[in-house]
User: What shape does this take?
Amino acid sequence: MEWVWTNFGLIWGLTLSQVWLSAFPIVIGFVVSIPLGYLASRSRVARSILLSIGGILYTIPSLALFIIIPVIIGTSILDPINVVIALTIYAIAIMVRSAADAFVSVPEPVQDSATAVGFSSAQRFFAVDFPLSGPVLLAGIRVVSVSTVSLVSIGSVIGVSSLGFLFTDGFQRNFPTEIWAGIVGTLVIAAVFDGILVLIGRILMPWNRRSSPALARNVASKRSVVLR
Amino acid sequence: MDLIIQGFTWIFAAAQWAGGGSIPVRLGEHLYYTGVSLAIAFVIAVPLGLYIGHTGKGRGVAIAASNISRALPTLGLLAVLVLVFGVGLLPAVIVLVILGIPPLLAGAYAGVESVDPQTVDAARAMGMTELQILFKVEIPLGAALIIGGFRAAALQIIATTVVAAYFGLGGLGRFLVDGQSQNDYPKLVGGAILVIALALVVDGVLALLQKLVVPRVSAGTRNTRRTARGGVIPPVAQSRTLIKEGQ
Assistant: This one.
């Protein structure tokens, strides 16, 4: 415990880099997945193509992806951007499926009545489809957030600094306290991110506050089966 | 892109196919760690998951387990256990089993739960015992999701075994870790290609298996479904849609 206080500066710095390395993939993954997921919910062909590509990309073990990405895009192998890109790819791979399920979860009669009262398709998307798919989207992005935070630390094997540094350094120095500090730190970041997402959900979807709809729960629990 | 070619050249060089640290040896180690861990995780998780799915008890535990395991940093877990038990198979297998259990558990539980309650009730009404219901109705109808859990567990374990090489274990991850520390880029990239290939092949085989086990709906049922649009869809067809959705 004493080690934690004397090295608080180091831990805090690593925590910040872990936060940045995981925040970017979560945000970009969400933004990119919305249009892709919408496309997948509209067309059967797009759905099967997007979900197959996502499934294949998600199958690639993270360490191998961290190494292959710089080779393909020509960055240095130690560049943190590789980890950000790899984790963004994973985030999109998970989130497109969630987004597609989310848009499918919007009841068809509701969509039809929006069209009937004269909504254009863009208006319908922003005023009807997007808000109503919110609960399932939230469930999806929460899964993305947790897994992204825990995957960032693997980057430290190839020298990308994050709380994972405490794992490799603690191992080399034979010092479990340091490793435990890293594990706890990672869990705390994951919990804080999750709390922020839930809070954003509460603010943006006040109608959803009381009871989480059965559908969102159902989809979320299915997600946890299919994904690692 | 040049490095990719060098990586492939490295893979196909004769030196990589014979001797102590050759590709076949590393691949064998990787499959061995994965197989042992999967088997142990399977024995622990699947009966438990089937029980939860069949009785509906402990549903929260299954969901919580899978959420927590997703948040746990595998690298940290491996580091701690290797320090406690020393470098070797034991700490790695413990971590791999821990990571394999949640997807297997969730798959088994969700597979059983995805079966239409009407179908289960029908089986019960026909006089099947609870065990018969489980083995003759729920497991066959939920098989795709159960194998889906197995697939997720297998991939999680394969990926983590790669990372375990950092802590002195064998397996394909050795090429990545050694390539990195020796600045041997062809080895590093070649190793990464091998890891990706292994993951894709295992995933592909299990995906195929998953497709094969989805029970066939008889032609009569299928017709009912097509003609009865908007009407009542037969339970068998319903649970089939659910399973497909779950993939």
In short: The radius of gyration of chain A is 20 Å. Confidence is low (pLDDT under 50) at residues 222-228 of chain A.
